[in-house]
């Protein structure tokens, strides 16, 4: 997702100055919950079995604070001390927080995806809960808004995949679906070996087109989020589209070059945000 902090969990729009002040503590608490779980799944030298055990313990503490009980003292960060009151105050749906943990656990046991439907099912746990949690804080629960939020969040997750080949492949994770690989005459091993080729670039171009279509499907949601939060969502959408544009400009060579958002992109993000229109599919 759009990186707005030195410290990041890539699927979370970290609370910036645009976030409504009354909601900022809740957004930050959820962010740190996701960030710490992300670290448990990816950082350090623990084995997959040890990571899974840590995530199970983390889930147990989530259940504890949701029941107004004290968490264990094993975590260095006071994640649950902040999250517990937020869950109670805002009546956060626990299944959405658990879904994020499901995704982190899935990354430790699954590294290949057969088709786009299977990958979107992963996004349903790894990304879509973030948007739904934020909509819950904003008091927006209608079905169409939830659908558009899912489209934006899934798109952001996919964009992160196509941006982060150089980070995911060394971990053995191939998020490009096997069906798409086969259609271009490629295999997972070709990507794991970092073999840049016309076929690989054609694959990435097609995957980026898919992510862009999803983003445009969800983009009208920005006009339903009131005030500053709506403008923050505009910047998040534009950040995702900007990464796709950078991948296009490098001729879809993100297998070997990683695009990123810098301060120089801010004018483009602001201009794109101002130009967003309420019509369907306009971003």
UniProtKB/TrEMBL annotation:
Pfam family, one: SQS_PSY
Any one biological process term the GO annotation gives: terpenoid biosynthetic process
Alphabetized InterPro entries for the sequence: HSQ_synthase_HpnC, Isoprenoid_synthase_dom_sf, Squ/phyt_synthse, Trans_IPPS_bact-type, Trans_IPPS_HH
MF terms in GO: geranylgeranyl diphosphate synthase activity; squalene synthase [NAD(P)H] activity
NCBIfam families for this protein: HpnC
Protein name stated in the entry: Squalene synthase HpnC
Species: Roseateles asaccharophilus
